[in-house]
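Input sequence (182 aa), recorded before submission:
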Amino acid sequence: MADNPVTVTIARRVVPGREADFETWADRLTDSASGFPGYLGCGRLKPGAGEGDPQVWHVVYRFASQEKLDAWEASAERQHLLDEGAELMETVAAQKVSGLETWFSLPGMLTNPPPKWKMFVVSGLVIYLLQVLEYTVFGQFVTDWPIPVRVLFMSFPVTAIMTWLVMPKASVVLRRWLYAAD
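Predicted structure, token format:
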């Protein structure tokens, strides 16, 4: 089975007055990461006016697999750059997600994903309900289609609805249960 891409989100509190230095340092860190195999991209979010701690910046980067990410994170080059940047900021939170965990990320919240069994239960129930709804509405129109075409027609809309509509809302509605300490 192929490794899933891994997304890392890091919240860093920048020393007041050192924001420009932090941006220059973060650009160097990104440039370095981009030279490593499996690097898929990076983004940096400045703190917004009126949003929590005005000094906390969020950095998001993505690698093609956990193995590729581990190679970057274990590199001497990265460690050297982190040592250089230590005077500019402190890391206040970090999160790694791959696969289904991305469906369970909460806006503005850096936390570990819920336990896999909870993600399984919620995903399974939502997929089941969406499939029943879709087959109820469209099932009569696709009964004569070849099975691979029918499955394709039915699975892509469900996946899109899950990713962009249902799971972001379900994660918010069920957050107390999903993220409760077991």
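Checked by second reader. The domain at 6-99 is CATH 3.30.70.100 (Alpha-Beta Plaits).
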